Amino acid sequence: MDFRQLESLVEILEKGSISGAAASLGISQPAVSKHIARLEKEMGIKIFVRGQKCSKLTVEGEILYNFAKKVVSSLNDIKREVSNASAEVAGTVTISASSIPGDFVLPSMLVEFRKEYPSIDVEVYISDSREAIEKLVTKEVDLAVTGFSRNTSGLESYPLCEDELVLIVPPNHPLALRKSITMKDIEALDIVGRVPGSATRRLWQDAFKEYYGEEKELGLSFGHVSAVVNAVESGAAAGIVSKLAVEKNPRLAKIPFSPALKRSFYITYGTVSTRAMELLIEFLSERIKKTQEV
After folding, report:
1. What are the φ and ψ backbone dihedral angles of 57, each rounded to 5 degrees?
2. Given 3-state DSSP classes, what are the helix, strand and coil percentages for the chain, each rounded to the nearest 5?
3. 110, 144, 107: which is closest to 129 by C-alpha?
4. One domain, residues 97 and 168
5. Helix axis angle, 59-85 to 3-15, nearest 10°
6. Could you tell me if 232 and 96 lie in one domain?
7. Quick one: which of 15, 138, 171, 228 has the fewest CB in 10 Å?
8. Using alpha carbons only, how large is the chain's radius of gyration in Å?
9. Are residues 184 and 154 in the same domain?
10. CA separation for the pair 129, 123 (Å, rounded)
11. 29-43 and 3-15 are packed helices; what angle lies between their axes, rounded to 10 degrees?
12. Cβ–Cβ < 8 Å for 68, 79
């Protein structure tokens, strides 16, 4: 019996399938299956109930699984303690972020973090909110920063900052001088927005659906906010984006919604496996506290 066999067992139960475990561990499905077969042979037991596709444990399998969870957790604790014992904390922390926090919130924060901890490298990967969370769940990254909150399946979230959506139009647009705008006002507009999977799109479409009973159709949508902004500047009627993305853009009129469409961005993470990761979480948490005190 070795650690990789026990780790495979734990991942199968946490991910719900051999394929999910293989993706999480970065190994092939046959390798995961071989780990389980060897465990069964060495222990002289059947781990899973026959015909249940690794979804239901036998009595003996349940005992082994509970033991395996403790072993895997203990190894993560060892890694963290060894990292903590280093005179100078070093390492790499990976973050998956949706486009708004990734482009407009995290850069300044991470520059400050690197000044304090120059031996800790941080890698930020930009995607939509849904994909960013998926990367965290499959353990491709250490943290996720998105418009989604997750406090289930071993994940923990807390708010990083607030954001508000605005309608953007060219300065010569009939709505450009409006102080605010409603869902009724945008019903007849040709809107350019973000693609499905974006927390930005979900927020305003939910508000539109609550008013009209269905989502608004978009003839043009983009995966990145800069493309939405460029489309509006190129002559598209209007776009809906984060205020953070356009507050320094003098070429567009930005009109808030009434009632306001506000949301939070969240830091989400699972197991804190290294000192570097722990320090980054603590740093961001302190930044949040200072912002709230202002």
Report:
1. -85, 150
2. 50, 20, 30
3. 144
4. no
5. 110
6. no
7. 171
8. 24
9. no
10. 17
11. 120
12. no
| pLDDT (mean) for 40-63 | 84
Query: What percent of the chain shows pLDDT beyond 70?
Result: 93
Tokens (6 digits) for 59: 């009595």
What is the per-residue DSSP string for 215-242? PPP-SEEESSHHHHHHHHHTT-SEEEEE
Convert the pLDDT of each residue in 256-267 to its tens digit: 999 999 999 999
Q: Between the CA atoms of 218, 223, 228 and 229, what dihedral angle is there, to the nearest 10 degrees?
A: 170
Local confidence band at 118 (pLDDT 50, 70, 90 cut-offs): very high
- For the cut 70, the answer to whether the pLDDT of residue 290 exceeds it is no
In which domain, by residue range, is 70 found?
Answer: 3-85
- Do 228 and 143 share a domain, yes or no? no
**Residue 63: what residue type?**
I
**The two structure tokens encoding residue 287:** 């930044």
Instruction: Name, in order, each residue with C-beta under 8 angstroms of 281's C-beta and a sequence gap of 6 or more.
Output: 143, 267, 269, 272
Cα 22 to Cα 108: distance, rounded to the nearest angstrom: 36
Domain-ending residue, one of 43, 58, 85: 85
Collapsed DSSP state (helix, strand, coil) of residue 127:
strand
Q: Are residues 105 and 28 in the same domain?
A: no
Residue 199 host element (H or E): helix 199-212
Looking at 85, 103, 118, the residue that finishes a domain is: 85
**pTM of full prediction above 0.70:** no
- On whether the CB atoms of residues 261 and 165 are closer than 8 A, the answer is yes
Q: CA 94, 100, 103: angle at the middle one, nearest 5?
A: 60
Question: What is the domain-level CATH number for residue 107?
Answer: 3.40.190.10
